[in-house]
Recover the amino acids of this structure.
């Protein structure tokens, strides 16, 4: 679950990924540009808030370290936003250090729309709603701002090992 | 039933007890759970139910709340309706093993998006598949309980006539709840006298039994993941804006 409405269909011709720094500077990648960046194949365990986990899943994508490399920022928070209008907030540090990717391939096949394709955020050390499906960009923020899921009652951080599912956990 | 926004304070696990069970279909039962400390909920919200084995192993699953709070012998109760998933870990236990008077841990109410607020004025379209009827029934029951005059349409997909959960109540409400329409789609076996062949829900069903986008309805779709994907795509294809189509997927996908 953790899709709140119809699955958005996004064409690769118009797809883009945008990182907007807190000073307004934008960094954009088209699909071709994303695919031309160094690719990684993380094998990770994922944890859904609806009480299931999937161990040893294989993905392919671009590390957020690569994407954030040329971005000048002093921000501490990130708000990921998606085609379809969803948003989710997370600390910027959680997107660094080889722990987060923009993923486009799952178990060797292009990521299906209902699983967040063409590309989703992959932040496996947090609950899976933080791994924004249909991701379109990230806004860097000096102040934390709850996203769509968090406004609907989900936890601001979402650590599966501390079972941080809902606000107040 | 409380109105207002979902609580931000911690939602704690608490012990509930089974006071009654009702057989709805050969594979689905309603459990009436006494919850001494219940803060109220909105139609569409769910609870998490947690089981603990003697060796400490725990399993938790989400179940939609089926209707308004009801009074039990020992205090407020909520109702959930559980459909048996073959080979499932939790649902067969709740249906076949869990006994009257026994404790179970629950927490809730949970979910702040797939909810219908009785003060809403838009016409409502409900599309349910199988046990996906449960949160939709909560909305139908709340509509009547709060005296809402908003027109409701329910389109309910089931395998066979025997699989209709809340069948008698839906028949009665379709007659007595003014402004509620109920239609069915049968996927495997239709009742005698039903026009048409059994089939999976399609564009014609959604078009015939739904509100046109011009009326700006609020639509709620709930059921197994594949069912929800299909129906939500059809609704978008018919011109309903995505933000007016709220979905709850019961199956296990990320
Ligand atoms: C928000 C929410 C509300 C829900 N409300 C209800 C409700 O009101 N009534 C209800 O009966 N269920 C509801 N569910 C589904 C419920 O949480 C469980 O997933 C379901 O009872 C199966 O659990 P299990 O432990 O028996 O099966 P598991 O041991 O989890 O699964 C066994 C096998 O069945 C598959 N499976 C899991 N769930 C389903 C399913 N729903 N349909 C078909 N196959 C499945 C699994 O992939 C697995 O292969 C809801 C789910 C969510 C996310």
């Amino acid at each position: 679950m953790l899709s709140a409405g119809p699955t958005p269909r996004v064409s690769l011709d118009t797809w883009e990924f945008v990182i907007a720094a807190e000073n307004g500077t934008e960094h954009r990648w088209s699909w071709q540009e994303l695919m031309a960046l160094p690719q990684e194949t993380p094998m990770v365990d994922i944890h859904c808030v609806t009480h299931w986990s999937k161990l040893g899943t294989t993905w392919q994508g671009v590390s957020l370290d690569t994407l954030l490399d040329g971005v000048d920022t002093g921000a501490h928070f990130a708000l990921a936003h998606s085609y379809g209008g969803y948003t989710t907030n997370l600390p910027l540090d959680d997107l660094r250090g080889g722990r987060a990717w923009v993923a486009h391939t799952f178990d060797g096949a292009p990521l299906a729309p209902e699983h967040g394709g063409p590309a989703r955020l992959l932040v496996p050390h947090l609950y899976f709603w933080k791994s924004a499906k249909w991701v379109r960009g990230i806004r860097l923020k000096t102040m934390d701002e709850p996203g769509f899921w968090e406004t609907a009652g989900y936890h601001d951080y979402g650590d599966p090992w501390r079972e941080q599912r809902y606000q107040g956990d | 039933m409380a109105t207002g926004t979902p609580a931000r304070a911690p939602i704690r696990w608490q012990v509930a007890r089974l006071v009654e069970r009702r057989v709805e279909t050969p594979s689905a039962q309603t459990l009436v759970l006494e919850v001494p400390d219940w803060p109220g909920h909105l139609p569409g919200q769910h609870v998490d139910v947690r089981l603990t084995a003697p060796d400490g192993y725990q399993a938790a699953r989400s179940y939609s709340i089926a209707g308004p709070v009801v009074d039990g012998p020992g205090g407020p109760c909520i109702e959930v309706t559980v459909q048996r998933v073959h080979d499932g870990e939790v649902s067969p236990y709740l249906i076949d093993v869990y006994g009257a008077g026994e404790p179970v841990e629950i927490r809730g109410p949970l979910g702040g998006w797939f909810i219908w607020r009785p003060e809403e004025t838009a016409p409502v379209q409900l599309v349910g598949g199988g046990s996906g009827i449960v949160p939709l029934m909560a909305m139908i029951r709340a509509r009547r309980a709060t005296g809402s005059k908003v027109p409701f349409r329910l389109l309910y997909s089931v395998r066979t006539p025997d699989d209709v959960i809340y069948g008698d109540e839906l028949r009665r409400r379709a007659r007595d709840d003014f402004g509620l329409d109920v239609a069915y789609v049968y996927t495997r076996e239709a009742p005698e006298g039903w026009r048409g062949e059994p089939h999976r829900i399609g564009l014609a069903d959604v078009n015939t039994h739904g509100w046109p986008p011009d009326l700006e309805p609020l639509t709620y779709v709930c059921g197994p993941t594949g069912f929800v994907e299909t129906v939500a795509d059809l609704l978008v294809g018919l011109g309903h804006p995505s933000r007016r189509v709220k979905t709850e997927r019961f199956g296990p996908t990320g």
Notes: The mean pLDDT of chain B is 93. Residues 207 and 238 of chain B are 8 Å apart (CA to CA).
